[in-house]
Amino acid sequence: MEEIKIDHAAMGRLAKAMAFICGPDHLTTIALKTAAESGSDKDIKKARTLFLRLKSGDRQAALAMLSAD
């Protein structure tokens, strides 16, 4: 799988996209929102791991929403 890099600034926008795709109570959405707010390495690593575990269609849809901004 290609390495996906998510910068700190994009985490908040990605959290909003994930809330639309998977819902605001989805673990990945919550982790992304937490990482965007705290900026801690631990939170960012957890959010990235959960994001990469999503179905590829969900990941692609979220990334497409970011590129549409």
Give a written overview of the molecule.
The protein is mainly alpha-helical and 69 residues long. The chain is 77% helix and 0% strand.
Write the layout of secondary structure elements.
Blueprint: H1 8-22, H2 27-38, H3 41-53, H4 56-68
Helix pairs in contact: 1-2, 1-4, 2-3
Number of domains: 1
Low-confidence stretches: none
Q: In total, how many beta strands?
A: 0
Biggest sheet record:
none
The count of helical stretches stands at 4
Order of helices and strands: HHHH
Q: Ends: how far apart?
A: 25 Å
The share of residues in extended strands comes to under 5%
Structural category is mainly alpha
If you average the pLDDT, what whole number results? 88
Globular, elongated, flat, extended or rod-shaped: what is the shape?
Answer: globular
| Rg of Cα set | 11 Å
The percent range for helix content is over 70%
Summarize the structure.
The protein is mostly helical. It contains 4 helices and no strands.
Descriptive terms for the model:
mainly alpha; globular; 4 helices; single chain
